[in-house]
Prior knowledge:
429 residues, alpha/beta, 5-stranded mixed β-sheet
Amino acid sequence: MDFVEELKWRGMLSNIMPGTQEHLNKEMTVAYLGIDPTADSLHIGHLCGVMMLRHFQRCGHKPIALIGGATGMIGDPSGKSQERNLLDEATLRHNQEAIKNQLSKFLDFNGTQPNAAEMVNNYDWMKNFSFLDFAREIGKHITVNYMMAKESVQKRLNGEARDGLSFTEFTYQLLQGYDFLHLYEAKGCRLQLGGSDQWGNITTGTELIRRKLGGEAYAITCPLITKADGTKFGKTESGNVWLDRRYTSPYKFYQFWLNVADDDAARYIKVFTSLTKDEIDALIAQHAEAPHLRVLQKKLAEEVTVMVHSREDYDKAVEASQILFGGGSADALRSLDEATMLDVFAGVPTFEFSIAENIGARLADLMVDKAPVFPSKGEMRKLVQNNGFSVNKVKITDPNATLTEDMLLGGKYVLVQKGKKNYVLLIGA
């Protein structure tokens, strides 16, 4: 497979340095992509870069994921209006291990092939580099004029930043450039990958390699992924969509992809999956014939959820979705873990009640007097008689039914369903 052609048809190519494609087609190449370690999980904003590494390895080349332990202590001005919080080494090491575990879902780190993936941390080669040595060995090769001309620097200097640009941040492009130089010498790395906002920093690296070593290095960036309406991709009302289930449950993760707009789904399925061009073209054609079936969104959600989490998590997310939107069974409801259940029913009305006071009490008393699910017992009785009232997906046919302990989901929840789509979640204490 031709890596550059693969990026082109997937809509993942923004900038490419002349000669890059020819070099890649000539020999197996080592490339690296930098990853910010400021959290112990990646979020879907990282996914385009990670997929670049994945496609790169699938094309027979060797990917290196560089954790920016040193640069994470500095802060990159590119695309930022404020300095980052700086991290201590223990936190950085923890984040690095967590990120490697996530990347192992996308990349083969353990293979015996020459193109097995590697992970490195630039803190390892920067921590003992003195300021005087850095100034003498690296700083003298890149002029201030060259650094000032970078778009990311100009934006900060021209008023985007409230407090201007610190010297610490100004030196960032030199530090990133040195990463490329180090990997060029230590790992034979000839190519740096990144987002389009990194183009200035990446080309500083290629320039440093040229000026210091007389070497040839290359660069490719992917475009900033946005939504069809131009807004930022990957953010929801509750914040980032994380790859770690502690921060974003597999159900919520699945729902994010399932609910993207049609135009976005057609672009995202190229960027965020490894499906072939023929498979994707067929899906797009199928979707165009019956958009209401949301074929693209369903396949996108399946591919990404299985890749990031597992087939089992995907199946559970589909089952959980059916509980809310397509019926679902009582057994399926009881199989949900607490976090997923709360995610599924996040938008429904909730009422609190005392478990001790209501075990053995009539449901009618609980749902009218204690928790106002119904305005009157007469209305509840009418719904029961019309076969329209369920507790935990089980039809209640006796208007005098009582609350029993085995009705408590997870020992504290009761899901009430009025008609087909009206839910109320009772939370016991």
